[in-house]
Amino acid sequence: MVRPILIALALISGLAACRGTEPVATQADTSALDASIASDSRVAKDVFGFLPTASAGGSAPLGFYSRGCAAGNVQLAETGPTWQAMRLSRNRNWGQPELVDFVQDLSRFAASQPGWEGLYVGDMSQPRGGPMLTGHASHQVGLDADIWMLPPDRLNLTSTERENLSSIRTDRNSGAYVNDAWTPQHTAILRAAASDPRVARIFVFPGAKVEMCNTATGDRSWLNKVRPWYGHNYHFHVRLNCPAGATYCEDQAPPPPGDGCADAQTWVNNIINPPPPDPDYVAPPSSGPVRMSDLPGACLAVAGSE
Ligand SMILES: [Zn+2]
């Protein structure tokens, strides 16, 4: 079983490296892997949560942000000229090369902002992506990154400090408004991220979106990618598009057109004045943990790679 998996991974990785058209052999091998994984009932986080290093070979995001894994992730350096990765013990400072490049680029922009030496980078992906033992429904394909709201005032934190330092919350009234910790620099950094064509979406608490809607000047098109979501008051979450030629990567449908400001205001209104519960509401059945059989077959090759 090992040999076909390694051959398939080499083919997938080779494909990813050149990101060209799909060779017939790869199609056949991934079909075999799809057949194998269909009967694999292991809980996927119990597989991917314990893999300490990236898979060998080229890089490829495989599957969807919340149902996938990542071949050939690379590690964001623990410290760079304009960033530090936080909570190193989690070993989640990994991502596709496009994500690592993006984080470094955004950190350079952040360092141009008054009071910001760069970025403190939270969870990205595990070495081979996939579901995590704790936290995060997504972050599985190496294209998601959490960025701390705390403005870095120094970039020489020890690993112990990176375990113990906390970010700051930037909301009040359960996400309905920004608090005094929110600054124009936060807006500038989120705007820079949302204006980057590599970015698909940014998740942040509703009050921050409304704040940016109310203060944005000039071009407002970047607001489209900034989406209100639960939590995301100590960090914001950047999600990249599938890179060009990433055959096995599944993009999320784009946000609806427009700046999304009315929608964000509705979120805020519902926080301030919660609507009465719907008497007909029935909670959906729990789907349980993500299993290997929920992932693309190629993830078997990623999990089994040297
Ligand atoms: Zn996140």
Automatic annotation (TrEMBL):
<dbReference type="GO" id="GO:0030288">
    <property type="term" value="C:outer membrane-bounded periplasmic space"/>
</dbReference>
<dbReference type="Pfam" id="PF03411">
    <property type="entry name" value="Peptidase_M74"/>
</dbReference>
<dbReference type="InterPro" id="IPR005073">
    <property type="entry name" value="Peptidase_M74"/>
</dbReference>
<keyword id="KW-0482">Metalloprotease</keyword>
<dbReference type="GO" id="GO:0006508">
    <property type="term" value="P:proteolysis"/>
</dbReference>
<keyword id="KW-0378">Hydrolase</keyword>
<keyword id="KW-0574">Periplasm</keyword>
<feature type="signal peptide">
    <location>
        <begin position="1"/>
        <end position="19"/>
    </location>
</feature>
<keyword id="KW-0732">Signal</keyword>
<keyword id="KW-1015">Disulfide bond</keyword>
<feature type="disulfide bond">
    <location>
        <begin position="213"/>
        <end position="261"/>
    </location>
</feature>
<feature type="disulfide bond">
    <location>
        <begin position="242"/>
        <end position="249"/>
    </location>
</feature>
<dbReference type="GO" id="GO:0008237">
    <property type="term" value="F:metallopeptidase activity"/>
</dbReference>
<dbReference type="InterPro" id="IPR009045">
    <property type="entry name" value="Zn_M74/Hedgehog-like"/>
</dbReference>
<keyword id="KW-0862">Zinc</keyword>
<keyword id="KW-0479">Metal-binding</keyword>
<protein>
    <submittedName>
        <fullName>Penicillin-insensitive murein endopeptidase</fullName>
    </submittedName>
</protein>
<dbReference type="GO" id="GO:0004252">
    <property type="term" value="F:serine-type endopeptidase activity"/>
</dbReference>
<dbReference type="GO" id="GO:0046872">
    <property type="term" value="F:metal ion binding"/>
</dbReference>
<keyword id="KW-0645">Protease</keyword>
